[in-house]
Design goal:
Elements (H helix, E strand, L loop, with lengths): L1 E9 L7 E9 L2 E7 H7 L4 E4 L3 E5 L1 E6 L16 H13 L3 H17 L2 E8 L5 H7 L2 E8 L7 H18 L5 E7 L7 H14 L3 E5 L3 H9 L3 H10 L13 H7 L7 E5 L5 H10 L2 E4 L1 H6 L7 H7 L2 E4 L12 H14 L6 H15 L17 E5 L5 H4 L2 H9 L6 E3 L4
Parallel strand pairs: 1-4, 1-5, 6-7, 7-8, 8-9, 9-10, 10-11, 11-12, 12-13
Antiparallel strand pairs: 1-2, 2-3, 5-14, 14-15
Helix pairs in contact: 2-8, 3-4, 5-6, 9-10, 13-14
The structure holds zinc ion.
Zinc ion binds next to loops.
């Protein structure tokens, strides 16, 4: 069945915006992109969906989230630093049993779909989000999180992750989602666990994700084992702080030394980086999921946007979880990034943030052949934003309309071709 979907402004992302544009959809695929007039003449019998005063966009990609934690919305007090927040998180998550985590993930999936997200980089620690994500039709990667700083337990921790991947592959044959492993962070996993996990993931073509350079506390810990990771986090959980010697280098250099930094690794956050770190990331080809609202909430500061852009790092956007972020909308994440970096004098071009929210995310999750832009052959995963209440000045050009969207004037939502 052919459906012609038209709107005032169509944003293919991979090419320039189209005024009075349209996409032609055949079942689940895009078969043509152009002006509404041109496609209307080429396909006179197609069913028509006319969005009129609206923006038509590719669906967003949430490159970094934890949908199992959706139920923790508003539970952890604001104003906690990273180490205190992790302690509070472990406590709050410990109060949720598997059924509660599953319901929490289902709610996260519902919210993601409603906000116009087509794929997720989902990290779970209990395995309860994999069913809801696979069954929802969302695409992306579900990562099982490994977290154990004791080098003596590296093998058994990795074995647990391997068993999960094996089980998921058997349980969901033909799934449109891939299954990966997440090394929680350089301060919560041991060096042998990093090295063995990386080797196994590379050998088995298993996607890998790492929270990296998220807080100043993380850098401190890697340099000399001091600071809030020792005094707050490990003191709080009663773990000795000196199971391994400090590597004495930055998080990115440590990941590089342990083999974890390469083009198949997805890094989350990447706030505390200098020019040398960025050079390592670029050289490795790793992608970084930018999560600005979570970074602000956990007092971790602002990712150096201009430095990242100048270095040429592959960037995506992630909302992180509702335990540290106000919503699962990638569009709201982009809007926040727009304001945050502009206030620091590094205003992103609206088209750049649109790219991060869509094609950048698809690229980071290995889905750029299927999602992230409006192109012939790709999936018709669409979002749209009605321009209700907007002034002529705000919507006079596609560029202005996109800037108004990032200023929060309109909210994109999911659009299904059968709607
Ligand atoms: Zn995270």
């Amino acid at each position: 069945m052919l459906t012609l979907i038209s709107a005032w402004y169509v944003f293919p992302v991979s090419s320039r915006p189209i005024v009075d544009g349209a996409v032609m959809v055949d079942r689940e695929r895009i078969i043509a992109v152009g002006t509404a007039t041109e496609l209307g003449e080429r396909y006179p019998a197609a069913r028509r969906v006319e969005l009129r005063e609206a923006l038509l966009l590719p669906a967003a990609i949430n490159a970094h989230t934890h949908l199992e934690l959706t139920a923790l919305e508003g539970v952890i007090p604001e104003g906690l630093d990273m180490a205190s927040w992790i302690l509070a998180l472990l406590r709050a998550r410990g109060a949720l049993d598997d059924a509660a985590l599953r319901a929490s993930a289902e709610e996260g999936v519902r919210r993601s779909l409603a906000s116009g997200v087509a794929a997720v980089g989902e990290i779970c620690s209990a395995g309860q989000s994999v069913g809801p994500v696979v069954e929802s039709g969302l695409r992306g990667v579900v990562y099982y999180e490994l977290l154990n700083g004791d080098p003596a337990q590296a093998d058994e921790t990795l074995a647990r992750g391997q068993a999960r991947i094996t089980r998921w592959r058997a349980e969901y044959p033909g799934a449109r989602v891939r299954f990966g492993l997440s090394l929680h962070a350089p301060y919560t996993v041991s060096r042998p666990l990093i090295e063995r996990t990386v080797a196994w993931c590379r050998g088995e073509d298993v996607p890998l994700c790492v929270h990296a350079a998220e807080s100043p506390a993380e850098t401190r810990w890697l340099l000399d084992r001091s600071g809030p990771i020792r005094d707050t986090l490990y003191a709080g959980i009663g773990r000795p702080a000196d199971l391994e010697a400090a590597p004495g280098v930055s998080p990115m250099r440590y990941l590089r030394e342990t083999g974890a930094l390469d083009a198949r690794t997805l890094l989350a956050h990447g706030v505390w980086v200098d020019a040398d770190d960025l050079a390592l990331v670029v050289e490795s080809g790793a992608a970084v999921a930018h999560c600005p609202r979570s970074n602000t909430r956990l007092l971790n500061g602002r990712m150096p946007w201009a430095d990242y852009r100048a270095a040429g790092v592959r960037l995506a956007l992630g909302t992180d979880s509702l335990a540290s972020s106000p919503s699962l909308s990638v569009w709201e994440e982009a809007a926040y990034a727009y304001i945050l970096h502009a206030e620091a004098g590094e205003r992103p071009a609206p088209a750049e943030l649109l790219r991060l929210a869509t094609l950048g995310g698809a690229d980071a999750l290995g889905l750029a052949d299927e999602l992230g832009s409006l192109e012939v052959g790709k999936l018709a995963a669409l979002a749209w934003a009605p321009l209700t209440g907007a002034s002529l000045a705000e919507t006079a050009t596609p560029e202005r309309a996109l800037a108004a969207l990032l200023a929060g004037r309109f909210q994109p939502r999911a659009l299904t071709p059968d709607a």
